[in-house]
UniProtKB/TrEMBL annotation:
UniProt xrefs under Pfam families: ABC_tran
Organism of this sequence: Sphingomonas psychrotolerans
Protein name, as recorded: ABC transporter ATP-binding protein
Matches recorded under SUPFAM superfamilies: P-loop containing nucleoside triphosphate hydrolases (SSF52540)
Gene3D superfamilies on file: P-loop containing nucleotide triphosphate hydrolases
Tree of life domain: Bacteria
GO molecular function, one term: ATP binding
Keyword terms of this UniProt record: ATP-binding, Nucleotide-binding, Transport
Alphabetized PANTHER family for the sequence: ABC TRANSPORTER ATP-BINDING PROTEIN ALBC-RELATED (PTHR42939)
Domain ABC transporter: 2-232
């Protein structure tokens, strides 16, 4: 569903992403871990068509993002670290607005409320102004859009940073539900523990390169941490 083929991005003379080969199939969650500046967000932005690759291809459902930026984006849902909502509008009104922008045909209030409920937003909160929403509640509106859109792939960039542990666990449960419904999920995170819990595979990135791809089932959290530190060079001495 998501495929990077020798994907490369330079910013001036700096190579931010260097020949990335990666595949995320329907029904799996691939987590990207790595130190700041490793090229994780650049990868997500290339799949979204926010950046043009210097070389290689980012494909969504077999289509090069550059060849059909609008069509490929329609199949994706992007959840950034901070979801921006209109504070004066309710959660439901925000969802209705973004659903219209995304070209979703069925935007009845009943359907959108159902999507918000599936994303875990309390019914009582749906009609309250989003200005009073916590970060966790805003993320749920983002996920509700994925559900409304029937997005086939989710691109998540540090979606739970700053969430309390309970909200983070709840968010990850929702992602797992999307995976079980057949979505392909690419998640950038610094949370090694959650990556191992929910990830099918875990990629370790450093300085623009994918250094290692690990099957989450083959490794304990402690082993993952040791591998991570080793790859990041902190245990090199
Ligand atoms: N628009 C840009 N212009 C110039 N350099 C950029 C740009 N975007 C990213 N970079 C550089 O590319 C490299 C990779 O950045 P990227 O944001 O992909 O890292 P990351 O792995 O997501 O890091 P973090 O964990 O801090 O979010 C960094 O050196 C960064 O400074």
């Amino acid at each position: 569903m998501l495929e990077a083929i020798a994907l490369t991005k330079d910013f001036g003379t700096h190579r931010a992403l260097d020949g990335l080969d990666l595949r995320v199939d329907p029904g799996e969650i691939v987590c990207l871990l790595g130190a700041n500046g490793a090229g994780k967000t650049t990868t997500v932005n290339l799949f979204l068509g926010f950046l043009e690759p210097t070389a290689g291809e980012a494909r969504v459902d077999g289509v090069d993002v550059r060849a059909d930026p609008v069509g490929t984006k329609r199949k994706l849902l992007y959840v950034p670290e901070q979801i921006a909502l209109f504070g004066e509008l309710s959660g439901l009104e925000n969802l209705a607005y973004f659903a219209a922008l995304a070209g979703i045909a069925d935007r009845s209030s009943t359907r959108l409320r159902d999507c918000l409920a599936q994303a875990g937003l309390e019914p009582a909160a749906m009609d309250r102004r989003a200005a009073g929403y916590s970060k966790g509640m805003r993320q749920k509106v983002g996920l509700a859009l994925a559900i409304a859109k029937r997005a086939r792939a989710l691109l998540l960039d540090e979606p739970t940073s700053g969430l309390d542990p309970q909200a983070s666990a709840e968010f990850h449960d929702l992602i797992v539900r999307q995976r079980d419904a057949g979505a392909a999920v690419l998640m950038v995170t610094h949370d090694l523990f959650r990556a191992r819990e929910v990830g099918t595979r875990i990629g370790l990135m450093r300085e623009g390169r994918l250094r290692r791809m690990i099957n989450a089932a083959d490794i304990t959290a402690t082993q993952l941490e040791a591998l991570y530190l080793e790859e990041m060079g902190r245990m090199a001495a």
